[in-house]
Amino acid sequence: MTVVRPRVVSLIGGSACTPSQAQDAEAVGRLLAERGIILVCGGRTGVMEAACRGAVEVGGTTIGILPGDSPSEGNPYLTVALPTGLGHARNMLVVLAGEAVIAIGGGPGTLSEIGFALKVKRRVIALDSWTASDFAGDQAPILTAQSPEDAVEFALAKEV
Amino acid sequence: MTVVRPRVVSLIGGSACTPSQAQDAEAVGRLLAERGIILVCGGRTGVMEAACRGAVEVGGTTIGILPGDSPSEGNPYLTVALPTGLGHARNMLVVLAGEAVIAIGGGPGTLSEIGFALKVKRRVIALDSWTASDFAGDQAPILTAQSPEDAVEFALAKEV
Amino acid sequence: MTVVRPRVVSLIGGSACTPSQAQDAEAVGRLLAERGIILVCGGRTGVMEAACRGAVEVGGTTIGILPGDSPSEGNPYLTVALPTGLGHARNMLVVLAGEAVIAIGGGPGTLSEIGFALKVKRRVIALDSWTASDFAGDQAPILTAQSPEDAVEFALAKEV
Amino acid sequence: MTVVRPRVVSLIGGSACTPSQAQDAEAVGRLLAERGIILVCGGRTGVMEAACRGAVEVGGTTIGILPGDSPSEGNPYLTVALPTGLGHARNMLVVLAGEAVIAIGGGPGTLSEIGFALKVKRRVIALDSWTASDFAGDQAPILTAQSPEDAVEFALAKEV
Fold first, then answer.
1. pLDDT tens sequence across A56-113
2. What is the per-residue pLDDT across C26-75, written as a single tens digit (0 to 9) for each?
3. Which 70-129 residues of chain C touch chain B by CB within 8 A?
4. Closest to A134 (Cβ–Cβ): which among D110, D135, D140?
């Protein structure tokens, strides 16, 4: 038998965020879930929590990759809470999980994850986050989205 | 709204195994899936592959936590393939994922994971694997199961 | 030019220990240092602190691989304090550092590290720790030492 | 007794680099070693190898934090080779090791490490690498150096 493996998209960004970023994150979560796509994130607060909430509200599946030892530190909208005990290093796993990474808001930690995503050749979409103009040279495009709809479309498109 | 979070059980053991261990692993996967429990393992061969196969054959959900950078190195029976890039260290994540850890077969690597599971206070069930008599002193019980049915029952029981 | 690279031996064991284990650890540290060997350990308390103290008292070099983000959490007898932020996972790095691993005392965490050491084919010497009889089958020998002198000799011998 | 713990500075950057970057890296290694400072890096090629060579040529101490399981994958100018088995994740350890991080050259991986360094509040000095103008907003300064001498001075200065 063969397993139908759902597509997975990663979401990274501010564990603290503006209301506008939270709104965008919730919409991204919802749009992904409506397409049957699994959302993977760091499982905590801010844009992570908002996106998970948006996803599960329409019956979607969310996986939180947590920094500590216990599933209880995850936000309330996780279908699966995976404790790693790895602290900061768990962010690399969030990036590696999906075929694409959507970044919303965020500070130097998010920049670090974007850099890592580019290093491991994952497609990166930025929504109110670090933009292509922040990157010198020909490092590789970060796709800048203007809306949650664009972000999800860029994440899933065959070619960009 | 609240999310109903399925229970999760971890499976560890030989990436190479005997036919009997493979049979047991497949049964364990099936029994967990029949109860709606998510199976988490290292996503590769041997008892991992057998357990995943048993689970998905009855519609269960399996998550493979992989050592490399690519989901493609996972076995064919993973609902979700999570690459970690962490090599050996990903074994700690497999142990941390579930409320209980079922060990089938395996060598020193599996022993290492059992030791770690005891350290982080996860319940450990051994089926044709390292047994309580391998452990000196009062380190904590490893529950020894004689069958897949026992293994799953011990994993899920309220009190053992 | 070529660099003369000192030999490295890893020490693992109880972060809490008996006076006898502390005494043994201090002797092991001293004996290694007298031979110009670098001691690598988890950098914290118990046998780790005792061994580091024994080493630096005779001018030796110690490296502590720490679980958190700050060098300040290390014991006072570290020449180099390396924070990893990795929590439990840093134990694998302690095991990988040396050509041999000396285990003194310790609980399931130490057993986990011994299992991992065997998996990655590092030589393991146990002093008042888990012994060969704790391991079933032909997994590979753990060399059991009766004294700090034996432990260091086994660690450094060309053939055992 | 107290241990005099040498200062530690981390170096990151291109595993492939231009001759000019290699020259700068070698000078940085030498300047640090002349001040008795331990150099920590990823232990491989490019600016890492050049800096290590510069350091050991004047009697300095270098520590390479390696991605694989074996010390033999390190460059020939390492006093201590620490295998981590962690792949990409070992870059976080390089950043955490030193009181400051000097970046020379490098691509998205180096950017990722700079972002992480800012996140964990390590001082970052860029020499022919990602510059402050690559970073939007008030994320925290990256100190841009024009020469190896400046880079080392910024790394060690009490206040910047």
1. 999 999 999 999 999 999 999 999 999 999 999 999 999 999 999 999 999 999 999 9
2. 999 999 999 999 999 999 999 999 999 999 999 999 999 999 999 999 99
3. 86, 88-89, 92, 107-116, 118-120
4. D135
The total number of structural domains in chain B stands at 1
Which domain does B152 fall in, by range?
A: 8-156
Report whether C114 contacts C103 (CB < 8 A): yes
SS3 content of chain C, % helix, strand, coil (to 5): 40, 20, 40
Q: Which residues contact C122 (CB under 8 A, 6 or more apart)?
A: C10, C95, C96, C98, C99, C100, C101
Burial state string for D12-27 with b = 16 or more CB within 10 A and e = fewer than 16: bbbbebeeebbebbbb
In a domain, A2, yes or no: no
Does B73 map to a domain?
yes
Name the pTM for this structure.
0.95
* Distance of alpha carbon D50 from alpha carbon D47, whole angstroms: 5
Rounded to 5°, angle at Cα A91 from A87 and A92:
115
Q: How far apart are CA C16 and CA C48, in angstroms?
A: 9
pLDDT digits (tens, 9 = 90+) for D31-49: 999 999 999 999 999 999 9
CATH number at residue B87: 3.40.50.450
